Fold this protein.
Amino acid sequence: MKRLLSTFLLAATCFASAASAQIDPAYNGLLKKYVNASGVNYAAWKANAADVATLERVVDSVAKAPASSAASQDQLAFHLNAYNAWILREKVREYPTNKKPFILSIPGYFDKKERITVAGKKMSFNELESGLIRPRFKDARIHFAINCASVSCPPLFNEAFDGKRLGGQLDDLAKKFVVKDVGGVKLSADKKTVAISNIFKWYADDFAPAGGAIAFINKYRPAGQPIPAGAKVEYQSYLWNLNESK
């Protein structure tokens, strides 16, 4: 009986930890206010000291959130929000003095330099993406949800991810990206060539379970608009310029 009770309490504790890692609700309001179809209004955000402070509070809550090894939808939503919130904090903090292409402006992005803190663990952006989110959750749709503040990244979603609605949110983002000509998927008029994002090449292993990039893309393309099986695949140039709205 004691062993059964201990097991139950342990499970309950783990569940509570997994469920309690939530993004600060204020984050959703910031996204609604400063993110639009053309990018992020960094200038207006930086000019509002209260909202800059709110973003700092958001990432502080991400840093102090309870750790969990669960692979639940709530945890995936939390980590996607964590990635995007930290990216925004970095860019808002340095704006407008640094408008370099994003990857060049953050030292250690692609290595293991510990620059951010998520649920009590110091890590790099690359470690958060490729060391935690990708291997733990194994969902290729995450590539359309995280945003590195560059023009060719899938557009930043203007609302916070929510575990209860995450499946639909990720599906919607995938559907929008695979019909986005510039930076996404562009099928030639004669349907003989398709130019796709380098995301599909860089993370080919993540799309393999769906049968590869084209099979994945066709799953989310509108009915009657699939990429033909014999189409020549090319890759679009990736633009690292800041995703600043005009």
